[in-house]
Design a protein that fits this description.
Elements (H helix, E strand, L loop, with lengths): L10 E6 L10 E16 L7 H9 L4 E11 L5 H19 L6 E8 L6 H11 L7 H10 L8 E9 L2 E10 L12 E6 L5 H14 L15 E6 L13 H23 L7 E9 L2 H12 L2 H8 L5 H9 L11 E5 L3 E6 L2 E2 L4 H7 L4 E7 L5 E8 L3 H9 L3
Parallel strand pairs: 3-4, 7-8, 9-13
Antiparallel strand pairs: 1-2, 2-3, 2-8, 5-6, 6-7, 9-14, 10-11, 10-13, 11-12
Helix pairs in contact: 2-3, 5-6, 7-9
């Protein structure tokens, strides 16, 4: 079995079924043996789930020791009873672990507006905290327990050295629908054994999310529960990272690598999707310009449906570029489409000759690429998305747990 969160020093986990869902696992716990530096980013949606609001308050001191996740019920828009249930869950876990309630990160996912099954959650925590484990299967079960409409669990792992110390970083994520690049709609939990100051950990996470989770899209919907959180407990024994030197940059790069892996796994599992699409914008004036264009094109329903239908309709792509809010010269933009090989389908913002039959055959691939050359500067960005299919409508028309 592949390496996972259980390989991080001092981390114990549990994924189990407690009855929120009818059959599948629905409770995950990730616990550090010692208090850890902690950081998180959250949805920009103003309607926010009760667990997320609690976590925001708890992480003001940049410290945590446990992550609790329930799946199958969002516990959003549930009024005072929803907040009461969320606080009771946190209180229970903290009591069972003999840690402060302020050291618990809490997240939830599932149906919005359904009464929260507080008693099931409290009982489930009490029964399962006693069997937190470090087996590979424990990590896999935790990744499985946070899924909703996902078709596979999403895990990632990296290892590197800081000084002479071996550092391990691993994470799990969930997401399939309601994915939009604005603190992308999903849950992600990362644990690491490096020693790093909380403020720098927050900065590294925010910077990594900007280029990874914020650059994916499935359907343009931003949810009420989105969160990416990280705990780093220092048990690797490296010299504490207190400034933006060589060790910080290495840590940040590895964190971004792990975030990118998890983000791309989410897109590849987009609800009803048949194609994973990478969008690359090159030769922009600024990275921000390139990111804005990549996000706009990747989120266009007209582009997504064209790719689903294997239609090389580059006009839809160019139209999306034009409404991205970036000052470009449309008469300089080149557009390329393809899979392993790219074919130029538009040159200097207009028609160019290409083999449509060959390209349509290429567009049958499950992994596609869109390249946009702006011919303005030397900056670039990448985004990731999927196609929009009949099955997406079916899944979301029928979804209610």
């Amino acid at each position: 079995m592949q390496r996972n969160v259980t390989d991080v020093k001092g981390i114990r986990v549990r994924g189990c079924h407690i009855g929120i869902k009818s059959k599948r696992r629905d409770l995950a716990m990730i616990v550090s043996d010692v208090p850890a530096s902690a950081a998180a980013v959250y949805t920009t949606n103003l309607v926010q789930a009760h667990p997320l609001l609690i976590t925001k308050g708890n992480l003001r001191d940049g410290r945590a020791q446990a992550i609790l996740v329930t799946s199958g019920n969002a516990n959003a828009c549930n009024g005072p009873e929803g907040m009461k249930g969320a606080r009771k869950a946190v209180e229970t876990l903290a009591s069972e672990l003999n840690i402060s309630e302020k050291d618990v990160i809490f997240a939830s996912t599932g149906v919005i507006g359904e009464p929260y099954p507080t008693e099931k959650v409290v009982d489930g925590i009490k029964r399962n905290v006693k069997v937190l484990g470090k087996r590979k299967i424990d990590g896999a079960m935790a990744a499985n327990a946070i899924m909703t409409t996902d078709t596979f669990q999403k895990e990632g792992y990296v290892t590197f050295t800081l000084g002479k110390r071996r550092v391990t970083m691993a994470g799990i994520a969930k997401g399939s629908g309601m994915i939009h690049p604005d603190m992308a709609t999903m849950l992600g939990f990362i644990v690491c054994d490096a020693d790093i100051e909380p403020g720098l950990l927050q900065e590294a996470l925010s910077d990594s999310v900007k280029r990874t989770f914020n650059m994916i899209t499935v359907d343009g919907d931003t949810s009420t529960n989105d969160m990416v959180a990280v705990m780093s407990n220092g048990l690797a024994g490296n010299r504490r990272i207190t400034g933006k030197g060589k060790d910080y940059e290495k840590f940040r790069r590895k964190l971004e690598t792990l975030c990118r892996h998890l983000a791309k796994a989410i897109v590849s599992d987009g609800e009803g999707a048949t194609k994973f699409v990478e969008y690359r914008v090159v030769n922009a004036l600024t990275e921000e310009d390139a990111m804005r264009i990549a996000r706009t094109v990747s989120d266009s329903n007209l582009v997504k449906t064209a790719l689903f239908g294997r239609d090389p309709n580059w006009g839809r792509i160019l139209a999306a570029v034009g409404r991205a809010g970036v000052d470009i010269d449309p008469d300089q933009v080149d557009v390329y489409l393809g899979a392993k090989r790219l074919i130029k389908v538009a040159e200097k913002g207009g028609v160019t000759e290409f083999d449509k039959k060959s390209l349509k055959l290429m567009l049958r691939s499950s992994r596609l690429k869109v390249l946009l050359d702006l011919h303005l500067g030397d900056r670039e960005a990448r985004a990731w998305g999927c196609d929009l299919t009949y099955d997406y409508i079916r899944i979301n028309a029928e979804y209610h747990t």
